[in-house]
């Protein structure tokens, strides 16, 4: 088990991680989610003893990483897949790591097979694609057959088949009773892979719960209501009636209304009592992706000036920043999620539940191609530059920081800067 207590990391004026406490248990995949710059890599580096906490502590199996006897046999990590000697053949890279930790050479060939790199084992890794680099990094993490595994963005650069394989690998490792801690930006991917989620924003804990609970606590049911386009006054009339009845009404881009806080039959009755005809009254549920974005919205450091999430958010006064989310209460100013109790919404059953893909043996990297039942891609995934990611078992060498520091002042208001300025 990994346990963090009051973990804090400051770099000068910048607090990268603030008073973070959580546990990562064995036998489950725990997803570690947060926007860019929220402190995921910093937390992982502290877990692996590569950075010292400014306050608090973190242990693995009750010991700080640096005090673990034969740590590479107990903990494996993929932090930055580019942290390899590019001139070395893949097999030789793994062999040198194995020799440093007293791991027999036959294990190198085993892990090459597990990640599907056996045919390119003699090729220099500098010619590897991003996906091959990730696989090599995962091989390095598995080398010591450790009980505890940390993966920082393991699916970065992988094609759908690779993503599917990583998903099944994580699940299989957890099913063997190992502790698997995986960071990602992709809520949709984590919903399929993880059993438990830890969500942070600006270094602070926003959520620590099972995926199932996260879905029921954060996926907001809402109704779409449309009045005749030809009579805009009916829309106004209905908006007033629904608001007076305690509903929360926001305009959709196509002229419909998005209503939360009122059941469908009640909306229908209110429309009838107000003498408003309806062209549409339909149940909907916000996706998990939306729920995650709602939760982390106030904790996003880098945002495009053309914000695709605008439709989810209530208008803010000019120049105002969204407030930080309050743990357990969601994001102020966003569509309010329903209260977490079950059955309070008469419409729309939860969708996007985890476990969409069947678990498979992790020694089969050539998994079937398209991911069945995979949710739509995160619209932000395409905006993010592929991140340098690298693999390296923690004992191999003191790792350089996995991510370069961001500029001291967040470029949120600067349209000349990319969304992820690092
Ligand atoms: N060595 C460092 N010196 C100064 N600031 C740093 C350093 N490392 C990280 N930071 C800052 O700490 C914050 C958290 O960074 P971190 O890399 O941990 O976030 P992250 O959640 O992993 O981000 P991403 O998802 O983009 O990889 C950022 O604002 C970053 O700029």
Automatic annotation (TrEMBL):
CDD domains: ABC_BcrA_bacitracin_resist (cd03268). Residues 305-422 are annotated as: Disordered. The keyword Kinase does not apply. Residues 315-326, 367-378, 395-404 have a biased composition (Pro residues). Residues 2-227 form the ABC transporter domain. Belongs to the ABC transporter superfamily. This is ABC transporter ATP-binding protein. It comes from Streptomyces lienomycini.
